[in-house]
Amino acid sequence: MIADRIAGAPISWGVCEVPGWGHQLTAERVLTEMAEAGLRATEFGPDGFLPEDPHERRSLLKEYQLLAVGGFVPAVLHEPGHDPWPAVAEALAGFTAAGADLLVLAAATGSDGYDSRPVLDVEGWRLLFQNLDRIRARAVGLGIRTCLHPHVGTMVETGEDVERLLESSDTPLCLDTGHLLIGGGDPASLASRAADRIVHTHLKDVDAALAERVRAGELTYYDAVRAGMYRPLGDGDANIAGVVSALEGNEYQGWYVLEQDTVLEAEPTPGAGPAADVRACVAYLEGLA
Question: By C-alpha distance, which of 169, 74, 90 is closest to 127?
Fold first, then answer.
């Protein structure tokens, strides 16, 4: 049942690793509203959002009857002379003890934010995929699965980048419908063509007009998010129904993580703001089922 595989992410409540992103809510409020929306699990969110001790983290999530899915970890994979594994290993140290088994890795640029990225040459791409596959192999030894998350403002962003990943690496994919559409890809088409590579799904619906302005360089990613680029599922242009249909038709068994990035200016009224949007997304997904 799809309803049993709907998870949340703190970024849907504006909780983000980027400095100055916006008003940051407490874990207690976010987890309360996740549970009230009927979510079954959550990703960890940025450092400092949940307790650092993995046993305390697991205990806190259990209070809200939420499972731990895993976490989003940005890592610089393309720079010569830089070994990304120590930082990734440090991030993974608490995964298993907290009950999580999935590393959602992003190929970070090395700069804060998601508003620009450098251009890679052939050697840069070779090094990126070499580090990616090395991390995946080492994580298996810790009982952790790895998937690569294409993301605006990272080294794997566009539809072309994703195709390069599929051809050059065996690492599975986190399908993020929003970032893929903003990067010029077709989420439903990818879900149909590469279902065997997709082990994790971030569902976002997107205002295509604002996404186009990000691609054209007219808006930064941050400003587009503030302007409401991400919409409740079914209210945008990402063909969420087509994505879910393609995945379920190919016997997808992973999580559907509701991950509508948002920027909060202030503390919202309890039950309103992000919580209302998440409840709408849950209702939409359950309607598809």
Answer: 169
Helices H / strands E in the chain, number of each: 11, 10
Interatomic CA distance for residues 259 and 276, integer angstroms: 14
One-letter amino acid for residue 234 of the chain: G
Q: Give 282's contacts (C-beta < 8 A, 6+ positions apart).
A: 6, 37, 38, 39, 258
Q: Is the pLDDT of residue 80 over 80?
A: yes
Q: Name the β-bridge partners of 8.
A: 42, 258
Helix, strand, coil share (%) of the chain residues, nearest 5: 40, 15, 45
The pTM score is: 0.94
- Distance CA(27)–CA(11), nearest Å, equals 12
Q: Cα(first)–Cα(last) distance of the chain, in Å?
A: 7
- What token pair was written down for 275? 């919580």
170-216 pLDDT per residue, tens: 999 999 999 999 989 999 999 999 999 999 999 999 999 999 999 89
Residue type, 156: V
In whole angstroms, what is the distance from residue 245 CA to residue 240 CA?
Answer: 8
Cα separation values, 45 from 37, 71, 111, Å: 18, 6, 19
Write phi, then psi, for 70 (nearest 5 degrees).
150, -160
Do 13 and 32 touch, CB atoms closer than 8 A?
A: no
DSSP-derived letter for residue 5 is G
State how far the Cα of 231 lies from the Cα of 225, in Å rounded to an integer.
10
The most distant pair of C-alpha atoms in the chain lies apart, rounded to whole Å, by 50
Q: Residue 260: helix, strand or coil by DSSP?
A: coil
Instruction: Report pLDDT digits (tens) over 230-284.
Output: 999 999 999 999 999 999 999 999 999 999 999 999 999 988 999 999 999 999 9
State the Cα–Cα distance between residues 176 and 146, nearest whole angstrom. 15
